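Entry 14. Structure prediction run on the chain below.
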Amino acid sequence: MKKVLVANRGEIAIRIIKSLKELGILTVSVFSEFDRKSLHVLNSDESYFLGPSISKESYLNQEKIIDIALKSKVDAIHPGYGFLSENHEFASKVLNANIIFIGPSAKTIKLMGNKILARESIKKYNVPILPGSNKIKNISDGVKISKQIGFPILIKAAAGGGGKGMRIVKKQEDFNDAYNIAKSEALSSFGDGDVFIEKFLQNPRHIEVQILADNYGNIIHLFERECSIQRRHQKVVEEAPSVALSHKQRDEICECAKRVAMSCKYVGAGTVEFLFDKNKFYFLEMNTRIQVEHPITEFITSIDIVKQQIHIALNKKLQIIQKDIKIFGHSIELRVYAEDSENDFNPDIGFLKQYIEPNGIGVRVDSGYQKNMEIPIYYDSLISKLIVHGKDRIEAIARMKRAIGEYHIMGIKSTLDFGLLVMNSNIFVNGDYDTNFIKNLSSDFYNYKFSNDEKKILSFFGAITKKNESNKIFIENKKSLWVKRKKK
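Output returned:
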């Protein structure tokens, strides 16, 4: 493999380019109108214009990307995450163009991308799943199944992800509206209106397992990640390993993830997600791509997951065996979004008037921006990922606090202030949290006594509200700032 096109932007494109360069592979980037001067363009050996800033005319333009790949004579395409990374049609087109797709087969992507088919495929592999259904035919069918399962239930889009096409139903009289909304969202977001029902767990933890699998039947896991701190079903803080699992439970969930990979003949790097509740875990879904939060796994295992993806794509056998993989210390990641955590995590846009990243032992920043660059409305609001590693969880938390204090962003709101709240939260420090963490954070925050130094940091980022203001730091605002800004 001599040349690879990275079909993405921002921090993940830069992250992939770094590993490719270390392997001596030439890199090709693509960019939209907005991204002409972006860092991923500056960091690549070659770069090509895709089209207008809007995603569907640039980073989602399959034909244009493949055309550039052919003209630049690349050997492979790495899709990163998001955009076309889990699009089975794109993976198929890449292969039909005699270009290597750095990821699993189109067949596997299609299978695991449909939640109904995925549930069905793992049944023979002794993988626990929540009580649920196949495709719901109509409202009466859904009500009948919901009664059998027992409320509360969750209506989910078969082709869904990221919280779209998903509705919680706590009682029968709410089913009709929830069903219609879920189907409508599923159709508009994924082009597929099929929905199914699953038992709703009210206080679960979200735990996922990183796996690697080659073309020769070798499957290994790189242990688990705790991803329970979420807003709108999107992760904000992750850590590895999870403090919730015993050694036995860790072995069980990781071996279970390997069985999921076996069920779909998986090849490449993938992640199996589970819900963990009352000491039991249940299969949620499989992500057939590299995860945003992969760096925390790299920190605790010292394995470069992107390089492993490339080796597997080159049809090489895994050189790592399971018994040699150990957990070293503890790692935490904070996703630094351009969002206002005091206002329901509404996105913010503007210029980075000041941007200084932290550094030092055990600190890593995967970023797509630098000072004076603009945060756009067209894409995900992720500025960077702040990742720390320590000899244990206590040191990792202390290191994250220090790193947040050294990370200076001005000109826009960011989730740095929120990250410090998390690190100082009794619930987080004790490791006794679940997916309702953000909803429960407010009271825990106001019971915490901050030091003078912490108050200075929080005050700098505008995280402490005025004395006479409401204690409710997360204000409901159903109209996204992105939508408002786009209308102007």
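The chain has three domains: 3-102, 131-199, 205-440.
Filed with the rest of this week's runs.
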